[in-house]
## 1
Amino acid sequence: MKKLIASLALAVAVFAPAAWAQDTAASAPAAAAAVATAASEAAPAAAAASAPADAASAAAAPAPVPNKGDTAWMMVSTLLVIMMTVPGLALFYGGLVRSKNMLSVLMQVMVAFSLIVVLWVIYGYSFAFTEGNKFIGGTDRILMKGIWDNVAGSFANGATFSKGVVIPEIVFAAFQATFAGITACLIVGAFAERIKFSAVLLFLALWFTFSYLPIAHMVWFWMGPDAYTAAGVVDEMNSKAGMIWQWGALDFAGGTVVHINAAMAGLVGAFMVGKRIGYGKEAFTPHSLTLTMVGASLLWVGWFGFNAGSALEANGFAALAFINTFVATAAAVLAWCVGEALLKGKASMLGAASGAVAGLVAITPAAGNVGIGGALIIGAVAGFACLWGVNGLKKLLGADDSLDVFGVHGVGGIVGALLTGVFNSPSLGGPSAVGDWVTAAMIAPDAYSIGAQVWTQLKAVLVTIVWSGVVSLIAYKIVDLVIGLRVSEDAEREGLDISSHGETAYHK
């Protein structure tokens, strides 16, 4: 643990002085990056400070003021995502492991979430959501400097997806912190029951820095709608956005950034850490499906903040994301239960809970980008696809992915990302995407190309898979060399609750 603390301290010591030393006066900090690509007004995308506007126009128009309703909705959405993670994800994962490892999973989720929130405030938000290059942001918000505008004597504002509509940037930063936190926590399910606690934290610090932040910047960072003041500045503004945003990929709330990103890290971890003792010979049955069901239910409720909050406003697109999150999840539960009944003769509580998560994952990139009919189909397809992911695909891969992180989040995320390109089409009931940010005009139905959009979605998926996979492999190797990845055989047999934390979840 001493080595872990020293490593983290060294990382902060390297990042902070270098960041403060840079001259940031020439670049405008991000006002608020959204939660999807800007190819759709509903699609969350990074929103940065607006490009310099014409002086006369700026003088004539009053500065926009945050709407209290939008601000309140974003604060509630932030709380809902925290609930998704602690206790939602913690209980969902905890119920799936053996009782001797229950507390260790709760610890990993809670402490990992806290670690990422701290790193987010120190440097994460800045590197994800300020102007830098097409792969990574800059240092304008290191330690959240500039959130309070000394010149204006007020908090800085962040853009939404409507021209002239803003929310406090500090609220957006908090909302995005919860996304980074839950993404890291998703990974721990892949190597549950045999990894060192210190190894989890050091790996997540490295992975967050070199995988989550670049992917978030590439997918979600752009200059905001108010930067597009005239046709002559469009190319310049587009060139400042993240690479995947420039491609026009749609990701409303994190199909690539959150789910595929985490799933690849989990899959690599399952291979690197190795299989649990007795895997394939002993039954590793969940110790409490009751807790798993409670956790899945909390995830479902909290996911409304995750998806609908990604609209950044309390508007029609938030409502669309809300209803789509509702119906896609229900469809996935039914699909998984039907598939399970056909394969095994019975539908299970574990299957229903897993189906709910599969539907939530798949609708994430599509939530505000597809119509209700599209959401139903995406949920149903995800239910069947993820059932195959945790059964057929898992056997093909041969990895001990303890809690099926890749089978659900990887497969579900890929299904959702690709089908977003299909059902965003207005001919299939989708809202289409913004084709001109100067006028905020949507792509006309006869001009929308499903094939072209699906190809763009596929490129975003492939970049995320490769980037996260390579970074994860290197990060796991570094951790293994520094402190080791796996607990001893005796500690694993005893259970991580006692061997790693000196406590137990249950007293006999």
## 2
Amino acid sequence: MIITCLKNMKMGSKFSFLFVNVVLVVASINKGVNCMNVSSSNADLDDYTQFLLANGVARTPPMGWNSRNHFQCNIDERTIKTTADALVSTGLAALGYKYVNIDDCWGEEKRDWKGSLRAKASTFPSGIKALADYVHSKGLKLGIYSDAGYRTCSKKMPGSLGHEEQDAKTFAEWGVDYLKYDNCYHDGSKPQERYARMSYALRNVGRPILYSLCEWGQENPAKWAGLYGNAWRTTGDIKDTWESVISIADENNIWGRYAGPGRWNDPDMLEVGNGGMNLEEYRSHFSIWALMKAPLLIGCDIQSASHETIRILGNKEVIDVNQDPLGVQGRKIRAKAGLEIWAGLLSGKRVAVVLWNRSGSRAPITVGWREIGFSPYNPVIVRDLWAHSFISMRKRHGLTAYVASHACKMYILTPS
């Protein structure tokens, strides 16, 4: 792990954690690709990956909205349409929140006489195709949900196990752009087999569909899911609590070396704005998710979101860290008594740093330039991403900030 590597380095070493981070990213992705067998050739996989990247699918972590965290099963086509409208009117769509994702409970309990999935007539009377057309007319993309089992997690509609090709064609015909694929009520077979079948089906529909594997991290999907999809859940379901956020962040941190353009670790959707945490905790949540290059999928009701919630979700400087084209997941590099330093390499030799106070009281946190691969003798330009201002540096060897309990400070550091 990166932290172990760092502890074993001498302070004067010419190697930095950033160098190790990049090496591990490349080595681990290559290792993952070489150790898995799939139903199609490596050439087919490479061609499909290039097809997706050329079409802009998950070149950077996907951004958008998902219905699950706030609405659960209480969804209908009006909610989806008004959410699409709200993404545009709040300016969030212009910042990159493009996917409008319908989660569980959108379909009828049984398939039609041809064996096809169908939208629930009472809640989606116009059908998914018409809804996709509406979302597309707003310059957005539509996502949908299914399951690698016989039933979805709600038990209210069929899963896609045994119907992968048929369902993939249906989604493509409807104009779907994103598939979240869950892991409930399956036949006990390995997820590598079940998720691979849907991956192969999606490759053959002639439409770029972002494929998000929701396997909950049970079989260490970071090690194999990059062969099949664009994002994979590394954890169980998030809750709108501080304890859930810090636990999930630590779980996702373990797998940082496997992420990169086209393939992302997913610590689950954002809870920002749902009411279970305070604003400082939500800023920390959003900052760490952005640094970890997690998919930024809003989980609150955008139509009723407060100005403070929109300001957090709409912080362009933090979003830019998440969407940096280099695609290196930020990692935890030091922690003691709840005071933590997280950092990640950005394009242009810059480094994003989060000073995160998980303790119960305000405290100073210091990051040294050597810790992030900078020379202690050269000047550094420091940009505070929440204050939207530059910091005048009096010390050359590092940065110290007093951070409130459960809050964070987030910076971009640029050597000059």
